[in-house]
Fold Polysaccharide pyruvyl transferase family protein WcaK.
Amino acid sequence: MLKIGLIFHSASNDNMGVGALSVSEVAIICRIAEARNIPVTIKVIDSIAERPAYVTGEDVEIRPTRPLRKPLDFFKAIRECDMVIDIGGGDSFADIYGPRRLTQMFLMKYLTHLARKPLVLAPQTFGPFRHRLSTFLARQTIRLSAITTTRDNLSTACLREIGLKGDIIEASDVALRLPYDLPPKRVESGPVRIGINVSGLLMDGGYTRDNMFGLTMDYPQLMRDILQRFADHPDNCEIHLVPHVISWKRGALEDDYAASVKLSEKFPSVTVAPAFTSPSEAKSYIAGMDFFMGARMHACIAAFSSGVPVVPMAYSRKFAGLFGSLGYDETVDCTTQSAEDILTRIFDAYDRRDALAQTQKTALKTGLEKLGFYEAALGDLMERLNRKS
């Protein structure tokens, strides 16, 4: 029985994007295991959480721990595994989220190396690394890893720029594989369903509450303007606010759901989507939209991978990196473009959404093909380790 540990994944994170990575990773591992006849158990080494886990299965164990407070407990959990897969929360292997998160990432990686367990860096965003120490440590831990996989060409370029010359697999986001339920067929003469993800994080100015990500416009006002224009649109638009970070703690900084409810008070005709309990539930809802936009990248990936024309609203380079690598160039940049430019791009994309759906279909095929490179490398490693065990 091959024992696989997952770190910097999460079985119960409030952020459905982090959850989408975890659910998708488990689905990928199980598919590989079945195809190659490798018996596996999966241990999600996660922080302690209050909400029920949405990563489940007979061969899945949730192992709660606090690496920064109890590193020896984390080390013990790692020692029980044959291999470890680290997805970095999707985009946390960078300087932009502050020193605490990066410190935890380095600690978990180096303890895995110390335990002499093969470390797989699953498809994720790498960088930017703006400081000498973080650049040095990143370079060293990546060199020690068994597999290094980026999810976009900008991350691959970043790793080359910091001096890494070894094998790097450029894949795509594992959440392209996130399972979901197909929406029921719609009446063609019905309203146009517009899905809008409002980021609670950006509504509050980031973690520091002072425009942490350097947006070039008033984000709350931009969201109000988008809602007003769709409400006034001559098409029969049915507007849905779709949260993708849903906190169980009242007053949490990142809560999209609370931000959506507050915004809906000024626009009573809009529908606020339910407080989803799992990433697949969120994707199933998004799949029922006719057009989508949002600043949570995995809400946009849910739309993209379920055939819904989407305009990602970037606050970091991970958006352009991921979608641009697939030939899907509809991302707007909230750190460089004006509010009026963004509004123009969104409504231009809305008007040509049928053509956009075809471009999206081609880009998704490219993404799944690239993701196959990671799946093949992961399967080969699992097979080698299984023969040794």
About this structure: The chain has a mean pLDDT of 93. The longest strand covers residues 40-46. The chain is about 45% helix and 15% strand.
